[in-house]
Amino acid sequence: MSRHRNLGSLAQDDDYDYDDNYGSDDDQYNNGPPDGMSLDEENNEGYDYIASQVGNQFTEDEIVDALRKTDYYPEEALDLLFQQHEEKQKKTQQTQKPKKKKQPPPPKNKTAQAPAKNVNNQPAAPKKGAKEEEDQGNMLASFGRGKQVQSTQASRTLLSSGRGTAPMTESPITMGRGLSFGRGSPILPVGRGTMTGVSMGRGSSVGRGMMMSVGRGQTLTPQKDQEDDQEEEQEDEQIDETDNDDEDDEMHQDNNNSIDAIGKGPVPSVFGRALVYPTYPTSPDHFTRAFLSSHQLTLHKDASFTFDEPSPDDLVLTKGKSVTNKQMENEPFKPIVKKEGKKPKKEKTPSSTTSTTTTTAPPITPTPVKAPPQDTDTMSRINVVIIGHVDAGKSTLMGHLLYQSGAIDDKLIHKYKKESQQIGKSSFHYAWVMDQNEEERQRGITMDVGVKHFDTTNKHVTILDAPGHRDFIPKMITGAVQADMAILVIGSCTGEFESGFKEGGQTREHLILVRSLGVSNILVAINKMDQVEWSQERFQDIRTQLNQFMKQIGLLNEKNANVHYVPVSGLQGINLRSRNGPPEWYQGPCLCDVIDEFQVDRDDSELTKPIRMSISDVYKSMSTGMTVSGKVEAGTLSVGQPVHVAPIKATCNVKSITRNGNNQVQVAYNGDNIEVGLTSSAFELESTLMSGQILCDIDRPIPCTNRFLGRIITFDLDIPITNGSSVQLHMQHMDVPAVVSKMVCTMNRQLEVIKKKPRVLVKNSCAIVEITIIDHPICIELYNEFKSFGRFMLRMGNKTAAAGVVTELKRIKKNKKKKVDKIADGVENVKIE
Ligand SMILES: Nc1nc2c(ncn2[C@@H]2O[C@H](COP(=O)(O)OP(=O)(O)OP(=O)(O)O)[C@@H](O)[C@H]2O)c(=O)[nH]1
After folding, report:
1. How remote is the CA of residue 749 from the centroid of ligand 1, in Å?
2. What's the complex ipTM?
3. How far is CA 415 from CA 179, 379, 419, 781, in A?
4. What is the value of pTM for the model shown?
5. pLDDT tens for each residue of 229-285
6. Cα of 692 from ligand 1 centre, angstroms
7. Ligand 1, CB cutoff 6 Å, lining residues
């Protein structure tokens, strides 16, 4: 069954309205599951978890401080608390103890220091007194929730499994093995000697192979190392099984939570609000910081958080006293009552925006949202992506239109004619206007998006000429994400339209893609009409087939007013700039007139949002220096404005803004396709600035994460999507490998859950899934907050498998975060003025 028929049957037979489900307008997305965040819940959990572990051992301030310092990873925070505690103790001991004789250092060769073994090559029995030491060590290993075993190992070691108890003991034994079985739990280096670190569960394995095992009184030889490794692996497997159960439970819980959240608005908890208070500059991890910063924005908005309210710490303290969020919101601010004997806290006013736990970091003052200055240019601006099957004549059509519009002069066209003739490609001379790259010219195909500008009577037009070849679909997507409307170019020659329109042809895929990316205004240029003698029959036949398909995918609106057809010849330049030739049977407007008549709806609310511009290209220019180009998706950008480059943690200043190819302007507005010259010292960033990065507000940068929930619609799938399916995620100018890490539920046309935890997703399903990015976090927003950064496409193999919108951002998974730290190491804290 062809894709055409599948979609058709879906619409007709299954009573499934693609348009209704997919959402022909953006409101469809808004009716879906809420964009509630799990961050606050997780952190509440984190706080409670720590509090349950430490009882009165640490103050709330200390816990909150540790949580902040560890990016709110409860287990890391717990470790940090213990580490700090131990350091304190050490210091106290050092000041109290009389100086001992210095012990000889342990020999480097561990074999030489091997403890005696018995005849069975087993470790010798522990010396007398070791038992007492064991008891003294009183080490508890906790496997699973609430299940505890007494360890025989004599060491001061922490074993923690899952979210179980993680006791801290005070054994004086210096060598041991630390096993941390928690969700990516870090190893707690509490022993004074060497210890083995094995962290199991949820795929994280920290320190294995890096740390030496000297526990259990065994000699460490390379062979023994291997044996140990094998032993650990076995343990790993066992624990993994346990952990998987745990994970399953949690996953189910998560799934249920996600499902339960559907239909309810995001209600941030007080602790969540405290976390996202704008005093988070001290986090060591940029990505998490950015993640929180943006949520700060979301939560502030949703929770009406004002500076007149209690400070975060006060809220945290109140939270610690098990007061419900609701109660707290209604409760007047109460100052913290300090515990006796504790160092008094620095004085602060409840309405202050400065951190109560950190004194070193300067406070961040959120940029007040100013009304953008009035745009003096009265002509509207439009971004047009040119799509269609390979060789349909897209570049030729645009090259000729630019020439007729005066954007290209005679001299240049003459030059291209001559040069293309020399390599036997004379018919491509107009295409060369768009295809600037040497390889593109040699091969006669577009490989990257060509950007050019021209004016119609009423509009500044930015052309984004997308490649038609299926190998360059990712590039085509980067063009389509910037577009307000699309020109679909159809080669009308016999067989040409058919090959582009059949299953797997790019005419269909491009239409589905633009539709999924929110572009609903289409101009169909039926090209190469000179080759079919301007046949009206052929024109009508193509039109009928395309209309039918566009209706099926929800592209054609009720009045068909958003789709226009124009018969043209790109090579001959007919019906491009004016009605200048055949056919007589066509009385409609020329291509330019249609563009001129399109209404571009700019969402004014986007203007007051923090700046977001996705970088499509980076280059050095003689006039503007280090330059990045792209479309302003939200907010305004002014000359002199400092901007944050995510995710590389760089700060630059805007030196110049060029609009419509050559107009130097002071301010660019959302929707503008611009070139931004950055301060000269941005040359230092030359090797790190790249397409796909985001220029964003310095105080409210874009969040970064590697995990999110999205609502997707699947297309004609060759293989069903299952839990763990590998996909390629496309978002803005990014294109990264990812996996479908959870299948939350499938939904019907009313967006009601029809099945929880489905095993497979077949074609034309609507579902909520969790996506995990494999390599490193990406810049991403909730669809309801920033539409352009909340839309994504999933491709499997060489085919578009699904389109979706981001409904919930999840915290960066720890193992992934570590990778990110490494990646970002080279560009940490790049600050340019
Ligand atoms: N006869 C005729 N040939 C055309 C017309 N438009 C384009 N062509 C020819 O079609 C061939 C392909 O044109 P391109 O403009 O490179 O096609 P394209 O769609 O941009 O190709 P890709 O971007 O690589 O997908 C060239 O040889 C053009 O001369 C037309 O209106 N009439």
Report:
1. 41
2. 0.98
3. 71, 32, 6, 46
4. 0.58
5. 444 444 434 433 333 434 444 434 444 444 444 333 333 333 333 223 222 222 223
6. 29
7. 388, 390-396, 427-428, 431, 445-446, 467-469, 527-528, 530-531, 569-571
